[in-house]
Amino acid sequence: MASDVQSNIQQAKKWLTIDVFPIWFEKGFDHRTDCFVETISTRIEPLFDVDRRTLVQARQIYSITEAVKLGLFEKEKAINLIKKNTDLLLKKFRLPSGAFVHSVDSRLNISNHDIDLYTQAFVLFGLAKAYEILRDEQLKEAAKSLLNYLKEERHLKNNGYSEIKGSKVFYQSN
Asked: Global pTM?
């Protein structure tokens, strides 16, 4: 039984190292914009003319930091990608309120101004993971700013947080 588990772990590591991470972090990173792409075709080509969701940026930051921790991706390469992407995230996806928009277009102009909670949660997670590897105080301050926004603008009196779509307030769970 233990040898089966070890074999499965080794197969998963090999798959991630050979098939997944090179695609995600090489083909899936647009060096022209310093942004992770939203979509990769079945021919393993990035689709550049697609909007870039904020949560994808944060999710890829998480993925690349975990790849480094597992020894499956080169740390210096990862640091370079994470630094470029977090700089972009703070510059193009963040609002003055401290919140982050849902998405930008391929030219990095805001395409969806929604400030959904799911995206904000991913951003907090991504900023924390980026801080782990970069130790950049700017990332910690951005996370604090986002937390302040959530506390002041979205926190409900009876606990929980509101969801806002357009000008309407919703009470949802995710």
From this structure: 0.89
